[in-house]
Amino acid sequence: MPTEPVADGRRARGEETRRRLLDATVRVIERDGVAGVTHRAVAAEAGVPKSVASYHYPAVDDLLTAALRDSSDAYARDLATLLPEGYGLGDLAAHLSACQEENRSRALAEYELYLQAARRPALRPAAARWTAVLAELAAPFTTDPATVATLTATLDGLFLQALLRDEPVDAGRVEAAMRVVIEGAAR
After folding, report:
1. Is 168 helix (H, G, I), strand (E, B) or coil?
2. Is 44 helix (H, G, I), strand (E, B) or coil?
3. What is the CATH number of domain 84-186?
4. Which of 29, 32, 127, 137 is spaced 20 to 30 A from 109 at the CA atom?
5. What's the CA gap between 69 and 117, in Å, rounded?
6. Are 141 and 111 contacting, i.e. CB atoms less than 8 angstroms apart?
7. pLDDT of residue 1
8. Residue 7's pLDDT is what?
């Protein structure tokens, strides 16, 4: 439900501060890894006092959860605007690959954050958002839950391997893998 705007701009300033803190959290992860995320480090990166970070996100897990959810949602919005209407597997593969290559350090930070959900249960609902994003992207090709799960695992594997090898993501390889999963499931 929408809230009424505050005439003195407090709500807008609060939203801007939260945005700066989330962006700063991802930059800290890019530079120092998830282990480097503290209220002090994020506040310094955002250019605000530590108390501001603690006020908006009382626990580090709150910062991490919000950053992961925000990253997944931003990725979904970006792809929704970039993908042409009636996109095919080739379009999807090209866009997924380009997004990772253009923002390699951010992709690494987001995967590190995503993997933290294995150790931090508070992050799991936010991590599940990534799977939901991929399910939305796969919807024109399959809605079968098993195929979507296999496709998600395949894409995550390809992108993680590219990061580990410090190699570019090959869109042709991504498209071929997606075809194997989707067409194999249709048999």
Report:
1. coil
2. helix
3. 1.10.357.10
4. 137
5. 12
6. no
7. 47
8. 55
The vertex-119 CA angle with 118 and 121, nearest 5°, equals: 80
Q: Which residue's entry shows tokens 């992709």?
A: 107
Amino acid identity, residue 151?
L
Buried-exposed string 142-152: b where 16+ CB fall within 10 A, e elsewhere? beeeebbebbb
Question: Which portions of the chain are predicted below pLDDT 50?
Answer: 1
The structure tokens listed for 143 are 């809605």
HSE toward the beta carbon, residue 65, CA cutoff 13 A: 15
Amino acid letter, residue 18: R
C-alpha–C-alpha distance, residues 36 and 146, integer Å: 36
Boundaries of every domain in the chain:
84-186
For 56, the token pair is 């908006």
The two structure tokens encoding residue 118: 């294995």
Give the residue carrying structure tokens 């995967």. 111
Asked if residue 112 lies in contact with residue 64, where contact means CB atoms within 8 angstroms, the answer is: no
